[in-house]
Amino acid sequence: MSHEPPAAHDLTHIAPRDKAEILAEALPYIRKFHGKTIVIKYGGNAMTDPALQQDFAEDVVLLKLVGMNPVVVHGGGPQIEDALAKIGKKGTFIQGMRVTDEETMEVVEWVLAGQVQQDIVGLINVAGGKAVGLTGRDGGLIRARKLRMVDHKDPSVVHDVGQVGEIESIDPSVVKALQDDQFIPVISPLGFGANNENYNINADVVAGKLAEVLKAEKLMMLTNIPGVLDKAGNLLTNLSAREIDELFADGTISGGMLPKIASALEAAKNGVTAVHIIDGRVPHSMLLEILSEQAYGTMIRSH
Ligand SMILES: Nc1ncnc2c1ncn2[C@@H]1O[C@H](COP(=O)(O)OP(=O)(O)O)[C@@H](O)[C@H]1O
Ligand SMILES: CC(=O)N[C@@H](CCC(=O)OP(=O)(O)O)C(=O)O
User: Fold this and answer.
1) Is 247 among the domain residues?
2) Which of 224, 251, 266, 293 has the largest count of CB atoms under 10 Å?
């Protein structure tokens, strides 16, 4: 007999009565969030396992079918790295942002708006939803300009990170029209500038800003780590603005977590009711976070 614990997504070991209780527990949450917008940042690191990708797509469809409005913003950092490796290039990052020269920009566009987006759209459609892939250019969704990146530690230093954009404005009308028509928008983090130039924008930044503009009820950021960790590696389940400042200052937060936390905090301060950073490698973590009492990952508070 195997002593392996059942996989988290294997529900056959749960007694029927317990299953019924789990389903019944979801009802108040379904009622509470009916008609509400949930922005889901699907990080490139969370989407590397095909079985998990399928679980993710099914969860998104379930949220839509019970009356919520999920909007997916996807990343693709590791997938861009794989494509760069094929042309003998390796990405470099400053404060969590990819330094994007012209050649890198071509790869970024090709990977994000191509393979990554179409995989997610396909999986959602197969799971019974109607997903539509968009970039920030479609419907004039994301206007951007070249990012002026000030050094976190020395504000007199400004880094040139190439064609990385910062968001100037978001026109959410295309997203709203799709939502109203029962579609599920799947958005690549690319923006356009005043001269029709293209920008590579960090997906966390896009998700945070879009959640604000759409007045989303929730922003869920799915990543490859249980949440924000302290210096000893313990999960921080709840973070206030002041605590986040301290984590920035003492260097606990680095790399890709920098734009993630900054965007999460901005969204929380600007009206998004609940902002969570959760582990996308745990099957159905997003569904459980939304539809049960169980709390996962790190919740970001505005005060
Ligand atoms: N204090 C911290 N807590 C958790 N993760 C951190 C922390 N500081 C840096 N990180 C890094 O941030 C990563 C998540 O950001 P990123 O790689 O951009 O993921 P994603 O693809 O989901 O956007 C983690 O895998 C981890 O390596
Ligand atoms: C400017 C910048 O860093 N853009 C990101 C866009 C993709 C992304 O954000 O992907 P993850 O969410 O998987 O990290 C990049 O080029 O990697």
Assistant:
1) yes
2) 266
Whether ligand 1 lies within 6 angstroms of the CB of 260 is answered as yes
Which CATH number covers residue 259? 3.40.1160.10
DSSP letters, 60-120, are HHHHHHTT-EEEEEE--HHHHHHHHHHTT----EETTEE-B-HHHHHHHHHIIIIIIHHHH
How many Å lie between the centroid of ligand 2 and the Cα of residue 201?
Answer: 7
Q: Is the dihedral of CA 200, 253, 287, 119 positive or negative?
A: positive
**CA–CA dist 41, 44 (Å, integer):** 9
In contact, 197 and 161? CB cutoff 8 Å: no
- Alpha-carbon gap, residue 80 to 105, rounded angstroms: 10
pTM: 0.94
Closest ligand to 80 CA?
2
d(CA 84, CA 57): 27
DSSP 44: G
In percent, how much of the chain has pLDDT > 90?
85
Number of structural domains in the chain: 1
